[in-house]
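User: Hey, my collaborator sent me this sequence without any context and asked if I could get a structure. I don't really work with proteins. Can you help?
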Amino acid sequence: MKRPAPAFPALLHYEVAHRILMGYMDYYYRFKLITKRARLRFEARDWHGTQADARSRITLYREEVARTTEQLNELMEGIAGDARFWGKVRDAFAEEIAHFNTRNIAETFFNSVYRYTYGIGADRRVMFVLRTGSYREHQGLSSISYDFTIGRRPLTDIVREVLDFFPFEVAWEDRERDVLLVAERWGAHPASRSQRLEILQSVFYRNKVAYIVGRLLDHDRVHPFILPLLHPDGRGILVDALLLESDQVVSIFSYHRSYFLADISVPSDMVDFLATFMPSKQISELYNAIGFEKHGKTVFYRELLRHIRHTESDPTERFVSAPGIAGMVMYVFTMPQLNMVFKVIRDTFAPPKQVTAETVKEKYDLVKRHDRVGRMADSYLFEKLELPLDRFSAECLEELRSTATSRVTVTQDCVMLSHVYVEKKMTPLNLYLQTADEAMAQKALRDYGRAIKQLAAANIFPGDLLLKNFGVTRVNRVVFYDYDEIELVTDCNFRHIPEPRTPEDEMSSQPWYYVGPRDIFPEEFPGFLLRAGPHLTYLRQQHGEIFDANFWNDLKRRLLAGEIMDVFPYRTGCRFLQ
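Assistant: No problem. I've predicted the 3D structure and written it out in structure-token form, which is a compact way to encode the shape of the chain:
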């Protein structure tokens, strides 16, 4: 049945704005509902439920955008929406959200609906492309933290008061023991001379850990104050550590970990708070960390535009090929002073690559939804991303035109990329090892082995373990970033190489045994990872088990049994009770 014409066509723009607003409100309600039950999951030790909630919250946004778009299509059937009309919709929407605690998130939702409706890139005439306020886009009317004056008070009293603000519905294992452990470590640190402690009212949940997050203020110095809480099987809740150093905390909130579940009323206030003790973090990264990755993408885009604008007069700041061995699946480019890289899927892949472009997209989507345990870089997916043509080097533009023709459109003044992933820039591990001294090289190799083991514990087999597919971060952490061949550990068949039957078998260049499509022989890893030498010898000494099928099959058995393994985002030496 044909939809009746609107009674007041002149107010259609207001009704469209209202439908988008209702879609946003429904999204935000469901977002909050997921985060609010994180405490219940933690108390019940429902780790599978926590991971399922983290995955469903990621898909929630796109589902609500699609549903809202479908409603708009019905509402606007037969009515052409031009820029003038949508400008009026945007103005009506802006008026309704002017005093929202989450105005900035709502603006991003509006942008997503518009782009989804028309399948276009950023349009400054009708979208909230540039920010409508400062980066402190809304200041809440009430405090988001509990505040404590330290003075000469015993630290044990303050720790008890902090824990009193978080009354869990299950028992502690030994709360007084934990109070003494926290106070002792705090008292031995220079941060104990701070004047004030501020603890966020929101608890941050991820996997099997709950984090009480705060900051210590000492005149012009700010220290983090993080209490990771565990709830082990057969025991009560306990404090696992006290983290007081910024470098300990940066990794917890990093772009290579899954997003937190935290019940947050004013996201911009929260980001502002976190930035005080993690100044190296971009605002976009912090929005990602607290679960608003779509708005994090919006903020990153603004950061990118600002970088391009501010470096306009610098002739060396052009898009160029990223350092390292060129990938067979992706062409990767960057700007020298930009801390991000852009990855475009090539039209054809050189042998022996047998994946398709659709497979690559599926792998990146898997990583987005999976528990990254700090070892897989997060990425923003942009569709129809426009970049200024005059900022491309000739070499970079030629590579895009010749190897990714179907995904690149060059106009008079811009380069439009129909599908591109944007990730944090890292130093490829193979390049890092070429210039690292022995101590740094060994540290990186130790972390490389840990990265493989932690990925495996999260049910990820990287597929291609080559060093060039792993990067070293600013804080010297090894992270995996090439996803076109990843598989679930539980889908792989790890085998020992059979003994040769004859001398001819042993000398043959071809396997003398059947190899199935998912068969993997860990004994072969050393031959293509590293040349024989001190690096390979050291890796064998530290992590030789990754070259043994028994190691992988044991992990596979535990994963199939439903075990969620512990992977802590802070150093083992920081833990109180190991």
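In plain terms: The first strand starts at residue 145 and ends at 149. You can pass these tokens on to your collaborator as they are.
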